[in-house]
Amino acid sequence: MSLDSEFGNYFKALDRSNNEDRCFLCRRTPSEVKVFFGFHEDGTPIEADRYGIEDVVLDPQVDIMSYKGERPVCSICQLNYDAIFLSENGHDLLRRLLWAMEHERDELWTPETPSKDPE
Question: Dmax over Cα atoms in the chain, in whole Å?
């Protein structure tokens, strides 16, 4: 694919996302996604000396954000999605989770504990 069409996909995705270059789901930026996987913005490993990593660089052609879909999604969210659907009954699990998030929102969070007055 040509560089021009890649830039076109990128800018179309930004338009769909109100000019925010972030994952639509988790809101991570591309640089935050790289850090999650252990790489600097330029693709070099963060702690290469510590772990004795030599000649390891994140290939610039590796997509960490999907810009061709309805909204950009990062590779971390894609991995999470894949893990859910590889699990037993993944579709049902996600369906139940989405239902609970919509209909039982308050029950999903730890109740607030009343603060104690100092005695």
Answer: 70
pLDDT tens digit string along 76-112? 999 999 999 898 899 999 999 999 999 999 998 888 7
Residues 60, 30: contact at Cβ < 8 Å?
Answer: no
Amino acid present at 10 = Y
The single-letter code of the amino acid at 54 is E
**Angle, CA 8 vertex, CA 24 and CA 22 arms, to 5°:** 20
Q: List, as one string, the DSSP characters of 18-74.
A: TT--S-TTT---HHHHHHHTTB-TTS-BTTHHHHT--S----TTS-SEE-SSSS-EE
**Tokens matching residue 46:** 């963060």
How many other C-beta atoms can be found within 10 angstroms of the C-beta atom of residue 25? 15
Which residues neighbour 67 within 8 Å (Cβ) at sequence distance 6 or greater? 9, 10, 12, 13
Place of tokens 């894609």: 78
